[in-house]
Every structure is written in structure tokens, then in C-alpha cells.
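Predicting holo structure, 2-acetamido-2-deoxy-beta-D-glucopyranose bound.
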Amino acid sequence: MHVLCLVFLILGFSTCQSSSLWNETYPKGEVVRVEDMNVYTVGNKANSAKDLSIIVFHDIYGFNITQTRVFCDRLAAEYEVQVVMADFYRGNTLPTTVPHFIAWLAQVGNWSQVSTDLRTIATWLRKTSSPSRRIAVIGFCWGGLQVARACSNLSDLFFTGVSIHGAWLTEDEVKNLQRPVLFIAAGDDPPLRPNISTVIEQSANSQVSGQCQYETYANMKHGFVSAGANYSNLENVAAINQVHESVRTFLSKISKSSSSITSYSACILLCLLFVFDLCQ
Ligand SMILES: *[C@@H]1O[C@H](CO)[C@@H](O)[C@H](O)[C@H]1NC(C)=O
Ligand SMILES: *[C@@H]1O[C@H](CO)[C@@H](O)[C@H](O)[C@H]1NC(C)=O
Ligand SMILES: *[C@@H]1O[C@H](CO)[C@@H](O)[C@H](O)[C@H]1NC(C)=O
Ligand SMILES: *[C@@H]1O[C@H](CO)[C@@H](O)[C@H](O)[C@H]1NC(C)=O
Ligand SMILES: *[C@@H]1O[C@H](CO)[C@@H](O)[C@H](O)[C@H]1NC(C)=O
Ligand SMILES: *[C@@H]1O[C@H](CO)[C@@H](O)[C@H](O)[C@H]1NC(C)=O
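Done. C-alpha cells:
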């Protein structure tokens, strides 16, 4: 009897020791200062084979949310890239009453500020890694809307984006899309099809619209990957695993096709030069 207890005790102890906490599975990054912003950076920026960095937009709960940080840590570790998340709200978190909330969001989260911040971060990333560094954007909730805007109005900086349970994603916000986006929605988000997908199919060029993807996690609630993630809930954990897999697959697919386009254009250019040379 006593021996059995002891065995259980030892077994229990060793399982405790070997399985680390969910928030401690992946290596952590550090907060650095970029102009007037704090930026969390994690992962190896020197992976020249990929030559890729990812900017993450936090949700309305801001920069200090463990679930959102862990998303960055995991993506950096599994995909072997540098992932950075800026404190777009500059130390603010959301106020608790609705009228204040709307005014606050217009102040801290407006596009003129965010687009300036994005230029700053992109410049810093290319200066500290390589000038040819390609950059993708990923955002949650409020940040999911910023992804649509960045892939519309800052398509010179970013080659693709992933919008995860994006908020306020209207038809208007996607009608100037210039880069392919993976849209991920929860079951209680406004449906992505038909409205969003139809507008994109009608207005974006066929290469962009053909590469956009739409995924809905019907059994999940808004926020399930960032501040609303519940790591004690097995279904939620399974959905997050699936999101990570989708994100990596999508980024690889778009990376491949955008680099083949580049080499294709280079080839055409070379051919043209060659023809030009012959004619002279
Ligand atoms: C992980 O969570 C535990 C329990 O909430 C906390 O004590 C610990 O500091 C966290 N670790 C990190 C690296 O955030
Ligand atoms: C985030 O955490 C840091 C360090 O713990 C703290 O100084 C800062 O005030 C926090 N910011 C917010 C918005 O909670
Ligand atoms: C946008 O944000 C900046 C910086 O927070 C602020 O100065 C500006 O007034 C905001 N614009 C609007 C329209 O709220
Ligand atoms: C993006 O650019 C388009 C066209 O220049 C403009 O109509 C639209 O208002 C811009 N969107 C934002 C969010 O600034
Ligand atoms: C989709 O478009 C229809 C027709 O314009 C509109 O009635 C409906 O509210 C829209 N749905 C969403 C989720 O935006
Ligand atoms: C998280 O999920 C667990 C298991 O389903 C549940 O017992 C708990 O209430 C959930 N926590 C929150 C904050 O929803």
C-alpha cells in the first residue's frame, strides 16, 4: 500500500516536472525600444534562407497579454522566423466604459498613426536584418482590421497578411486589397462568406483574390487565439494548433508564389535585354 503511494507520488512528480506550463513551452523574446514604441521581438532574425519577418498586431487588450505573446513565441519557434509585436497603444489598455472605449480607440488606434508606426517598424526590421527582408503582417481582432488596411494601403511594405478573428471588417475595408490575406473567423464573428469574399473577388486582381483564403472555426468564440484563448479548454487548444498550422502553410504558399513571380519577372527582363542586345 505504502509502496503504491510512493510510486504514484514519484510518477506524479515526474509528470509535473517533464510537462512545462503552456506559457513556457517556447523561447521568450525581449522588449526593445524603436523610436517612441516598445516592440516585443522573438526569434532568429538571421535566417537568410527565409529572409522573412512578421509583424503582429495585438488585439484591443494590448501589448501585455500572455496568450498573444505566446502566439508570437510559438510562430517564431516553429516557423523559424523573427516575429515582432509593437505596442501600438503605447502603454494604454482599453477603458472600461463603452463611450470612452470608442473615443479611446479613435485616438490610439487610428490608421494615420498605425500606418506611420508600420513604416517605422518595417524600416527598423530591414535595417537590422537585411534590406531585402520580406515582411508579413498578422493581427487579432482590432489588429485583424489593421491587416486588411496594411495589405491595401501599404502593399509596398508587406507581401501578405493573416487576419485572425478580425473586428470591423466591412466590405469597404477590403475593396482595395492589394495583397493576399488569410481570413480566420470564429463562429460568432460576422461570416466571411459571402460578403467579404465576394467584394474581394470582384475588386482585387485575380492573382490576389485567387490566393485569399477563408477559414471559420465554428465551435470557437471571438478572441480564441489571443486574449480570449483558454488553454485549459482542450477544444480551444486544438483550434489554436490548427490556426498555427494554417498560418505556416499559408505563409509558405504565398512566399513560394511571390518568389517565383520575382524570378519569372527577372527571367522576362533578362530575355528582353537579350533581345534588345541582339537588335543593336
Ligand atoms: C506562466 O504562467 C505562470 C502561472 O500563471 C506564471 O507563474 C509564470 O510566471 C508564467 N511564465 C511566463 C514566462 O510568463
Ligand atoms: C506591461 O508590462 C510592463 C512590465 O511588466 C509594465 O511596465 C507596463 O506598464 C505594462 N503595460 C500595460 C499596458 O499593461
Ligand atoms: C490619431 O492618433 C494620433 C496619435 O495618437 C493623434 O494625435 C491623432 O489625433 C489621432 N487622430 C484622430 C483622427 O483621432
Ligand atoms: C486606402 O487607400 C484608398 C485609396 O487610396 C483610400 O480610399 C482609403 O481611404 C485608404 N484607407 C485607409 C484606411 O486609409
Ligand atoms: C451582407 O450583405 C447583405 C446585402 O448587402 C447585407 O444585408 C448583410 O447585412 C451583409 N452581412 C454582413 C455580415 O455584413
Ligand atoms: C476554460 O476552460 C475550462 C475547461 O473547459 C473551463 O472550466 C473554464 O471555465 C474556462 N475558463 C474561462 C475563463 O472561460
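The longest helix spans residues 234-279.
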